[in-house]
Amino acid sequence: MFDFYGNRKYFFAFSGLILVACIIALIVHQGLNLDIQFAGGTIIEFQMKDANIDLNKASEVAKAATGKNVSAQTSYSLNADNNNERIDLLVLNISSSLSDEEHEKVMAAIKENFAVREDAEITTRHVDPAMGKELAAKSILAVIIAAILMVIYVWIRFKIMGGLLAGLASVIALLHDVMVMIALYAITDLPVNDSFVAAVLTIVGYSINDTIVIFDRIRENSTLLRKEPLATITNKSISQSISRTINTALTTIMCVLVVYIFAAYNNIESIKNFALPMLVGLVSGTYSTIFIASPVWVMMKERQAKRQAASKPAKA
Amino acid sequence: MKGNYGIKSLLLILIIGLLTYMSIAGLSIPGTEIDVKKVSENIRFGIDIRGGVRAVLTAPSDVHPTDEQMEAAKQVVENRLDYQKVYDRTVLLEKTNKRIIVEIPWRQDEKDFDPRKAVNELGMTAQLTFREVDASKVDENGNYLPLDDKIILKGDDVVKAAPEADPSTGKVYVSLKLSSEGAKKFEEATGRLVGQPIAIFMDEQLISAPNVREKISGDSAVIDIGISDTNLATQEATELANTINAGALPFKLEAIQIESISPILGKSALNVILMAGLVACILVGLFMLLYYRLPGIIADIALLFQIVTQVLVISGVGMSLTLAGIAGIILTIGMGVDANVIIYERIKEEIKSGKTIRAAIDVGFERAFTAIFDGNITTLITAVVLYMLGSGSIQSFAFTLGLGVLLNFITAIVISRTFLRAVSGFKITKNRWLYGVRGGNSNV
Prior knowledge:
The complex is a heterodimer of chains A (316) and B (444).
Chain A: H1 8-28, H2 36-39, E1 41-48, H3 55-66, E2 70-79, E3 85-94, H4 100-113, E4 123-127, H5 129-157, H6 164-188, H7 194-224, H8 230-265, H9 269-315
Chain B: H1 3-25, E1 27-28, E2 35-36, H2 39-42, H3 47-50, E3 52-58, H4 67-83, E4 90-94, E5 99-105, H5 115-123, E6 128-132, E7 151-154, E8 158-165, E9 172-178, H6 180-192, E10 198-202, E11 205-208, E12 220-224, H7 230-247, E13 254-261, H8 263-292, H9 294-317, H10 323-336, H11 338-352, H12 357-389, H13 392-423
Antiparallel strand pairs in B: 1-2, 3-5, 3-13, 4-5, 6-7, 6-10, 8-9, 9-12, 10-11
């Protein structure tokens, strides 16, 4: 049997390394790259006749029309209605919101200077900065509320494991997973949007679910093997449920991976933005379930036992 | 041994078969209330798939509208969309945030559609007028046309409109309270137009054209609804009152968020994600089959039930399904087999520890129950939090996730259990290999 508890320092060190990388990346990139959904701003997507787009010119033209900072990018999509014909896109990303007049000007300017497909609909997204801020605050609130509810639930259901301690241990694993997902976005500088928040919350649910199955085993084994030390019970419980942990992770990861591959191949941003953090979160969730949650719980429980043992003679 | 469970299993297979049939072909039994439309026709896709505009409208930041004013503003938006014949739309009022969320699908016939302009038009200050009409000037539907030189009252002449009911007769009407200047103008006009209609217009659109019964003096007036059904009349009166109030609204609605998605890109995305879903389904199904063998088949049947029911419910409640929502369904396909995995792993363990297959199945289900229960509740909590705090696309995801988790629980506890018990009664199924356990027959 593998000694999950005994080798904990390696796992903790590994996760610590990711944390350090995350912090460095956050400092280097000056925080997370917020999508316009949170930061506010305007994105306009033009369907172009061909891929021959001068990006410098595009951003110059747009800048002249709006007087605002514009970054231009190319992208593409496949038209399912027409033999997966490739549609080239010119994407303008404007950091502040535009007035109606500015909006009209930039549309006209691009249509005049570039080969925009006729009769093609133009995709726009416009978010007011105040609305973005509120959405960001709400998203953080959602994660916090979910985490608190989890602690309370585990506390009530896992009394035999010291209730609150079990709840805290599972939340530490959960925060670990959120940290890994943030690290991904901090390092790659991908834009954070509400799909990311949804992915984080899903992983919050998944990670707890995963942890609970092992805790359930510890709960069962604690009554069966009362004489054994905690570390042994925990190691045993992890080993007993490991094939379940891995199989469930496998089927779930398989699904999300398929979605990601399809979305990446067809370049569908919205789905990619959703599947990628989920994928990383699933791997992290499985890892933290096995290598973080239970060892942390044992450590906290043993420290509590020591403290109680130390305080008893003092009372007597 | 197997009797009871055998019959139950057959029944379950029938139900699953029926549900699958219903979702593919629909089901309609003449003479009964049963009329389930096939999913592919009935399901409502979100704006991100159909293409269209989603806008969040709110009052300018220096205006603090009341709930009633927001209701009125929503009515303005509804009326304007009616006028443009955009019926396939969603208009939601978020009272807490004082926001109106509008979703309009893309119109096929419109080539040069400017979503921003369309949204701005929706939010313009409403122009309410009471006008004299000319019976000879009507449009093709026989509705009175607005005549610019025949305006009796404007929006700001009306202080307040409210739906009310006569306490003795129960008759529903809209009561109007007019400003002193409005009352003067109204008295003059009603005196002149007894027996003739006065039409109420919102912008250019005719809302209602009640007949004047008598000269109205003073600052209050009444518009009879003239529908005997109380519920219908109340609804009508509320709408009319909201519309009239909207005409007195001192603010326009501003778009703080506009999203417009091209239907071509949306449709491509839908195809891709459906394909991904199918592949994911097949992979998970194969995995369960190869790894767990006999119980794997049962898990696959249970999975079919889960997906079919999920899709039927979503199509039935009319919730719009977004790309994120479909991703939620695919995710629950992966997570959905979790309960079965927990149970089967437990059963395998029990078989290895020397129990008979039958006993192992019983004990396996029993011992796996708490883990499945606690695990699913926590995921459900996340789904609920997401649904409460999320918006649009995320709500759709939360809904499919929550639904998937619930169904997963039901399938594992009811369907898998019944099937497994039924098949374990046969002699041939006593082989341990069938349960993914290495070596020999079980000690029956």
